[in-house]
Amino acid sequence: MKIEGIVLRLLRMPLVHFFETSFSRTYERQIVIVEVKSDGLSGWGEITAGEHPFYNEEWTESAWIIARDYVAPRLVGREIEAATEVDGLTRHIRGHNMARGGVEAAVWDLQARRHGNPLWREIGGGARREIPCGVSIGIQDSVEQLVEKIERELGDGYQRIKMKIKPGWDVDVVGRIRERFPSIRLMADANSAYMLHDAARLKQLDDFYLMMIEQPLAHDDIIDHAALQPQLHTPICLDECIRSAHHAEQAITMKACGIINIKLGRVGGFAEAKRLHDVCEVRGIPVWCGGMLEAGIGRAHNIALATLPNFTLPGDVSASNRYWKRDIISPPVEITPKGTIAIRDEPGFGYEIDDEFMRHVTVRTQEVR
To answer: What is the pLDDT along the chain (369 residues), one digit of tens a residue?
Structure first.
């Protein structure tokens, strides 16, 4: 297929409710949407970088520049045999996995549409017809507010609750939540808020039989996590520091974790996500699909990814209405009463673009031809 043009759109979408992690509070998302054109068809991707370089070094404006000036020119006008080639054509761009991955995902979607396949089938997924869903709940203004949100999410059927933690909002809060909900699947996500000398405090979380503690130490660290894990009964799940299959191999070899979260953008797209998935599967490390407050396109890509066989734990893929009054896809992503999302068989990522609403929330457009 010949890549004839790549269109970037910057969207501004207010969240239904603020979302707070250990490093920031977000009220509105700025999202870069990628459209890749070939022979009358379009494939769609989403660049999942945040508004600020806090989760990692990427942010919306940097991703726009990298996608426009570095990724797109390496693809536009080129004939490629398969979407697997995109990773190799852009891999020499150091870092900027989210910018690279958003464009790569769009090419996978384009290829799926050309073949008349749903995206999950095109990437080799389909191990399940429904994916189990959990939710990620940010830091709240009070424990009472957190309890209310958890009750609401459990009432909607979600199978796992992830709560954000940070120093000052950790052991006591998790203890109160566990006391209120003694039998739910519960995990804590620190987003790199602690250091190795905090091991004694993190060990107190062992009392609450959590599924995992996600990325407690530095965003770029594996070695200190390897020193921390033997001190805890609770499995460590690595997120930010795992940017490739090679990083996963290193972390597993060093026994730095028991679980790995795979985010499509963080690792640079489907090709590397599949390699990472396969490494973990061979080594007996379960994985799950993390979220980045995606709009509908990125959410649909996550659904496809989570149909690969080693995604055995409920991920952060949840319904559109948890984040948006109106999503940019139709129909919106919905969960079943048992806390799952049914995969769709339509070509590509499986949903229609809501063109009217996308135009309404688009603040900038640029095409590379």
So the answer is: 999 999 999 999 999 988 888 777 898 999 999 999 999 999 999 999 999 999 999 999 999 999 999 999 999 999 999 999 999 999 999 999 999 999 999 999 999 999 999 999 999 999 999 999 999 999 999 999 999 999 999 999 999 999 999 999 999 999 999 999 999 999 999 999 999 999 999 999 999 999 999 999 999 999 999 999 999 999 999 999 999 999 999 999 999 999 999 999 999 999 999 999 999 999 999 999 999 999 999 999 999 999 999 999 999 999 999 999 999 999 999 999 999 999 999 999 999 999 999 999 999 999 999
Total domains in the chain come to: 2
Q: Say if CB 333 and CB 327 are below 8 A apart.
A: yes
Order of strands across the sheet that contains 41-47: 41-47, 25-38, 5-20, 362-368
Q: How far apart are CA 67 and CA 295, in angstroms?
A: 18
Going from the C-alpha of 190 to that of each of 138, 139, 211, 236, the distances in angstroms are 11, 11, 14, 11
Catalytic residue chosen out of the listed positions 37, 162, 263, 274:
263
Distance, CA of 69 to CA of 65 (rounded, Å) = 6
Task: Give this prediction's pTM.
Answer: 0.95
Write the CB contacts of 123 (distance below 8 Å, at least 6 apart in sequence).
108, 270, 274, 304, 305, 308
Give the active site residue among 37, 164, 166, 274: 164
Token couple for 18: 């603020």
Is 263 a residue of the active site? Answer: yes
Based on the fold, state whether residues 74 and 139 are members of the same structural domain. no
Active site residue 166: no
Cα three-residue angle 46-2-366, rounded to 5 degrees = 45
Same domain for 145 and 63?
no
Q: Is 184 among the domain residues?
A: yes
In which domain, by residue range, is 130 found?
Answer: 122-342
| 221 and 360, same domain (yes or no) | no
